Every structure is written in C-alpha cells, then in structure tokens.
Amino acid sequence: MLSALRDLYGGRSALARRFHLGLLVFDAVTVAFIVATSFVGPEPWLRLVNAAFGVLIALDLVARILASQRRLREIVSLGTLADLVAIGSFLAPITGGAGGFLRVLRTLRLVRTLSAMDQTRGPGGGPRRNEEALVAMANLLVFVFIMTGVVYETQHRANPDIGNYADALYFTVTALTTTGFGDITLPGTTGRMLTVVVMIFGVTLFLRLAQVMFRPYKVRFRCPACGLGRHEHDAVHCKACGLLLAIPDEGADG
After folding, report:
1. Residue 254's pLDDT is what?
2. What CATH number is associated with residue 40?
3. Last residue of a domain, one of 123, 152, 172
C-alpha cells in the first residue's frame, strides 16, 4: 500500500503522470468552484458540496504525507499548512465571506501539482514549453485569487466600494494591470500599501508569463560537463563547452 502511494505521488511511471494529471484537473475544478461560489449567497446545498471537497482534499493530504520520504518536512510545508486551512474552511458550516477567503488558499496547490508533474518526467526531460507557460499562468492566477480574497476580507466591512467578491476581483485586476480607473480605491495607509503590493508583484508575475510565452523555445537538460541547463531544442553539442549531448526527444518519454 505504502509503496503504491509512493509510486503515485513520487514515481516517474506513466501511471504516476496520469495520476498527477488527475490531481491537476481536481485542483482546477476546486479553484473554479471556489471562484463561482464566491458570487453566490449562502445556500444549504453548498454545505454538502463544501464538505465533499473538504473530505477529498483531506484524503489527498493524508495520502501525500504517507507517501513522502520526509514526512515531518511535508507536514510543516507551506502547501500542507495551506491545505489544512482550506480543509477547515470547507468543512466549517459557513460559506462566503471569511470562508471564501480561506478556501482560496487551495489555489496554491495548482503550482505544486504542476511542479510534481514536471518531476515525473525524469532527469533530462524538463517541462515542455506549454507546461512552463501553465506554471507561470498558475502563479499569476494564484496571486490574483489570494489578493482578491485579502482585499475583500480587509475592505468589505468598512469600504462601500467593496460590496462583494466581484468588486474585490475587479479592483485587483485593475491594480495589477496598472489601469487605475479610480472608481474603486482602498483608503488609508493600509489600503495604499495593499494596492502597492498588488501592482508590484502582479506586474512581475505578468511579465514572467509574457517572457515564457514569447522567448525562443529551449529545453531543460543539464550538461554533464559544464552544467548548462538550457539548450536549443535541436542542439547536438553544448554551446558552452562543446560536449556531445543526448537530449531525449519529447516523443521518447512514455
């Protein structure tokens, strides 16, 4: 049982890759549910759906800890702590408001799952171009969702401009893109500093996504001689030291 879990969570087999792809789909569905229900008022059926998500996330967390070679390190990791908070908010008999803000921490799992999919490729394969773009996009979306939650949670009680999650999302996107329409602002020193954080980190993540999407395509493969980690996709020799390379073809990993 334990060996099977370790193969699924840390192995490099085709089954492990499919398993991580399934986790990625589940994480994406969870994030979509969090965002969609942020615009919905308290409903009885949401409690059952929240509880189901909480149980599934808890089972995944327990299995991941059992499969880890370093369980203590896994338990105290940021991803695990975020999952514990998210599980508590899913299982709590509340929806929206603070509960929505806590559940949004689940978006951190998107980046972790994408990184785990990268590791299942084995040495030399590296992430394909589309997957690097997905990781950069996931980082940006995680930041947007978390900052939207922070803006809503800190402003909706005192700021009449932030009446719901949509207002907070609208402000976050306009601040991130530095559009600055000015119809929604965050008053006070705390609000201004929060706006600065959204602009600085949001623009940085957006530029990172643009860089990944538009730069020339290269593959990750560590040169055994000099350690150069990125090469042209059709490289035969390392451009730094001239060593003959054996970069695996993308169609070879299966």
Report:
1. 43
2. 1.20.120
3. 123
